[in-house]
Design goal:
Four Helix Bundle (Hemerythrin (Met), subunit A); 216 residues
Length: 216
């Protein structure tokens, strides 16, 4: 039975949506290196933003392609959310480090908010791994998760582009800086939506465990 489940998981691997997801995962370390090495002397921060936008767009369209061309696969259902989680974990860690390095004390204090995003994704990854190990397949993202992911990408791109001290645009055009209060409100809104998305997985997860218990 275990072999059949494994075979089912790795069926229909070579689909366009899966290839897009593979590329998205490979872009994560590229984004991280460019972001870390960015400075006013180079354009790495701009390249990192472009990669982040590409990652967000591929996340938006790979599911649509899968449904439109009937290329939905068991592996894709696992890889797509994994790519999201790895991307969001990377962004959260990098922004936490960047904010801690800021001269402004408010920015430094606000850096801890990004650890919430890291904690949420860590819980999701660990929970998904445990479920897969015991033979349960994590449920697909609910509408709350999709909205939270979209808002997360949009807000983080704005922070990396226009944020005080760290923004790509504000490195060259300080007058275009996003006010700290506005930036903080946007990040907090994203954090609230992320928390709601996390809670939305609880009923479905409990149902899966109950069904597994009843089947036994």
């Amino acid at each position: 039975m275990a072999e059949k489940k494994e075979d089912a998981l790795f069926s229909k691997i070579w689909t366009i949506p899966n290839l897009i997801t593979f590329v998205r995962i490979l872009l994560i370390p590229v984004f991280a290196v460019l972001f870390v090495k960015a400075s006013p002397e180079n354009n790495y921060i701009v390249y990192s933003i472009i990669i982040l936008i590409i990652s967000g767009l591929t996340d938006l369209f790979d599911g649509k392609i899968a449904r439109r061309f009937n290329q939905i696969s068991p592996l894709g259902k696992v890889l797509d959310p994994l790519a999201d989680k790895l991307t969001q974990i990377t962004i959260a860690i990098l922004l936490f480090i960047k904010f801690r390095a800021c001269d402004d004390s408010t920015m430094k204090a606000f850096s801890w908010v990004f650890l919430f995003f890291l904690l949420k994704e860590a819980i999701m990854v660990i929970g998904s791994v445990i479920m897969l190990l015991i033979g349960l397949r994590p449920g697909a993202a609910e509408i709350y998760g999709k909205v939270a992911t979209f808002v997360f990408y949009a807000v983080m791109i704005m922070v990396i582009t226009f944020g005080p001290e760290i923004g790509a645009v504000t490195m060259y055009y300080p007058n275009l800086v996003l006010p700290k209060s506005v930036m903080m409100i946007l990040v907090i809104i994203s954090a609230i939506l992320t928390f709601i998305a996390l809670c939305s997985y609880i009923p479905g997860t409990i149902k899966l465990f109950k069904e597994r218990k009843n089947n036994k």
